[in-house]
Design a protein that fits this description.
three-stranded antiparallel β-sheet, two-stranded antiparallel sheet, 2 helices, 13% helix
Length: 169
């Protein structure tokens, strides 16, 4: 009986992850910008790397694999508020052995509640979006009105995605 309850609990948690941390309304209508000089769309994250790339939203920050980096409005300086189910949709940009250096951008690390290290830009933890299928995708832009692509200056880009599926830039 306990085993059945455990399986049912896992299913409920999995379903909760599908709706965690913001509304997906419009998430798939965002443009898939291309990165210039990005690496392949590998799903293996290069921990602790950040760089800039071109996208449909202009120049943005990306991780070591060219995947778009986001901030969450519900986070505070030095603290992530994306936990449990939220992380299924918004995986952290893990910190590597050293903190990357970017001209004009404050990059640091925070310690998450589970003890793991996460990169932060301007003190805010940064994430990837699970629905961004390849390098340069920006499908997480403005999801739920609380998730934002990070610009090359380390500040969030609040440009709303266009309804026709193109960024318009």
């Amino acid at each position: 009986m306990r085993r059945v309850a455990g399986v049912v609990g896992a299913i409920v948690l999995g379903l909760g992850a599908l709706t965690a941390c913001g509304d997906d309304k419009g998430a798939d209508s965002n443009a898939s910008g291309s990165t210039s000089g990005s690496t392949s769309g590998s799903t293996t994250q290069a921990a602790g790397e950040l760089k800039t790339a071109d996208s449909g939203l202009g120049k943005i920050l990306v991780d070591g694999n060219g995947r778009t980096v986001y901030v969450f409005d519900k986070d505070t300086t030095g603290k992530s508020n994306c936990e449990t189910d939220c992380l299924a949709k918004w995986p952290v940009v893990a910190a590597g052995d050293s903190t990357p250096k970017l001209d004009g951008v404050e990059v640091s690390t925070i310690t998450r509640s589970d003890g793991s290290k996460q990169l932060a830009v301007g003190g805010l933890p940064v994430y990837l979006f699970a629905n961004d299928a390849k390098a340069g995708d920006t499908k997480g832009q403005a999801v739920g009105g609380v998730w934002w692509v990070v610009g090359p200056d380390g500040k969030k880009i609040t440009t709303q995605p266009s309804s026709d599926g193109n960024s318009g830039y």
